[in-house]
Amino acid sequence: MTTPVVDIWGPAAPGARAEISAAPAPHDEWELPGGKAWVFYSPLNRRQLIRPVILSDGFAGGPSSLDRLWAGLEENGDYRFVSELHAAGRDVIILGYDDRAASITANADTVIDCICRALSERVGRSKLVVGGFSMGGLVTRYALAKMELDPALPDQRTSLYLSYDTPHRGAWLPVSLQAFTHFAADNWGEVPLVGEKLRQFSALLNSPAARQMARWHLEKASGTVKEAPERVEFLQELEELGSWPRSVRKIGVANGVDTGNGNGIKPDVTAVRADGETLVDTWLKTQAIGDQEVARLQKKGGEAVSVRTSGLPDIDGAPGGLFTAPSEQGDPGSFGLVALLGRLLGNTVDPDVITTSCFIPAISALAVGDISDPKALYQPITPDSSELDAFVAAGRNEGHTTMTEELGAWIVNEIVASS
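Above: the chain's sequence. Below: its structure in token form.
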């Protein structure tokens, strides 16, 4: 299993994780308000910034890690994305954030600062390529659109925008997963060691970025499932900016297929069940259409909490990038995370866990349709249906932000062709 570019759970991930090699020292490092950029010049350009490509990190817990990003971009076992860009004479600027869970609009200001710095240091007149992975594609999309319309900002001088498995139409965080995380943090948040992890996960799912990105949000276990006000406000702001940067070519890729074929996860089946020292007959189900009880949560000695949804699609099995597909690197998946936390709380977990689920539906990554529409989720995607100028979907439903030759080589070819 390859290493994803975006490490979603970040430092909050419990359990052992495979060590990764340290990234090479960048040729330059830019301290930016709200983040940092690591500059790697192409060997063809003799340590001058001539044809810059800015690549943004995405949503996760904590600050960006160059080592993690480099592992996903270069040491993923399939395609050396940075090396291929260098071979094409492109200088790579990897952009990270102090807080990857901060609001999209706040981190977009860091993107703008990075673009301005790149333009000031660029030798010659080559236009920029700007984009990002996962939510990084939304952050850069917003930043470029803002630079076009705000007269107080300089011209972004960008020819190509790219997104890599970006939730243009929203991301899917299973409601049952959100409910369990908040429930566990409320009941065991002060328990030594595991309590800190529970609080981190609950805070991450309630962070500004998660509220803006998730199509459906649940603030607490007993709360109401809805589109968060922060998301509604963000979408309104994006629409006021024209929704997309209009002076650039827009391309994107999806880690899911465009054929409409799902990942095989069936709706309304038990994904994980735990019982033991702290939990009583606690279970989570995969999402189904219509009215459904998606989770039963019960602390030993307490009352059971029923979590219900209504009007949601059968989205866990939809084609798209998988939610942190379980890997040798220690990623627990989505429902797999619940199983892991259940064990850490002293419970026995049924062995037949459905560990992962769809995270970024293919129609979201390719800016097609509405992910709340169950028919749209499973329909083939045609070239003329996307708001992107060009796109490519993966040949299989694979881990979110997995770098593959199939997707990476297509992007490199598009970058070369755009100059």
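The first helix runs from residue 66 to 74.
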